[in-house]
């Protein structure tokens, strides 16, 4: 039973994501007090892997995860999942909407259901808690009447029942989570993969443009780019890039080798199937066949055979 | 004694260049009536190599050579030499400047010494001939008094003597010649090499820019680019590129493989020491070491070792 570390407490979206990321196994989920601590549990061998959030459609990149992956012993992402940010509202068994006079949750969660609460629980006050999971505790102990929680919370509170499910003022909010592991065989390419890297470019005019050209010239789609100052001080940046394809793909490996030559630091952060399984189609000039053929052609030319 | 084909007749700059290109051997020089015919002599096995002009500093590219290399059985350049376009003026033994009333040469040559003739042989008429070599014949037979010739012509006409040497109205005019051979081992890299290729780019917006970016991103200097319509009609062009470096250099091979993937046709036209022996310095991100290290790094990453 592999141990999977995640940002606790239990009953949050982080637990739910970690379950989704490991659904083919029956993991022992180990809550940690921070993202850094969850990653360090993997580095220290106390956990086989960690489930951590990496970006949210409303709030953007999760800096603690980016920084935690960029420094320290190398780790890699081996899976991702996208969790819609939709809440369940739990109440005590026998309660109905008209019994609810107070609604508890983490302030971020309360902010995302404000309109729903105003319409469906008019007049109810709000009780801020340290996590969505803690809100369920408040309802259980009677300190609040309703809790806005991650769907997984119900499993920890069988005495509570849902008043509503899939609640969110904004329909499409979602958080992407990664399953992070230590060194070891990478996931096999599936034809619908994403590769994450972090690079520090030499501080020269045009270097970032050249980095992006290395990808563009090989027909590699860049789906995300974030910059974070390095510890060397403001002015030097580390760029986090997500690109379509697997490092085992010829064009991706070729591009990454190019970045390795060009950048003062390239850290590979993983190749794994995209959550949405959207196929990645290489254009003809960047296909596996094109790379095979060009390598064979070059070998012929270098040997003087000239059979172009 | 290797047979070297060249554009005749004997006694021209083409013969002189062919001697310079093969100075380490004692070739048998075989004049041909055209550049195409000299190249075909190599293709047909009648000659070991051909010495042909490829560009002139005044008149530009020599289309017959470019087209002759781009189609037909593959050939490669294995050496180059740059010949200054400076003429000798030959007269009959015993003649002096004041005896000269007519000056013979190919019209191109006469054009390049017009000022010198006006100043040093005032009043002399001009006699156009089919080649500079033919002009020497005219002087020998008495049909003209002076011949404007390639320096090598004197060797064919020991009865003629130089009235002047190194004559040219424009000081720096020069012609570059290539020694062309059939398939076989390429010249070893010297660190001061040039590589010639011909590419046909897909007719898409930006393709030529991408071709040039493949070179620029690897720090490869492009010293020459010429375009010639392909036989497929106007609108489709073949680009002749000269770039610094040898196909055996990692960055050059890598770039050429990239072009092979991207272009509908890439023909390798040779890697050979530059006539001027100017060293080609790869920038750090394109050095042999950088390529070795990036390949080793990629192998580690793909194997999941992550020791970045």
From TrEMBL, chains A, B:
Presence of keyword Transit peptide: no
Location of the ACT domain: 196-274
Domain Prephenate dehydratase: 3-182
Record's protein name: Prephenate dehydratase
Name of the gene encoding the protein in the UniProt record: pheA
Matches recorded under SUPFAM superfamilies: ACT-like, Periplasmic binding protein-like II
GO terms of molecular function: prephenate dehydratase activity
Organism: Actinopolyspora biskrensis
A GO biological-process term: L-phenylalanine biosynthetic process
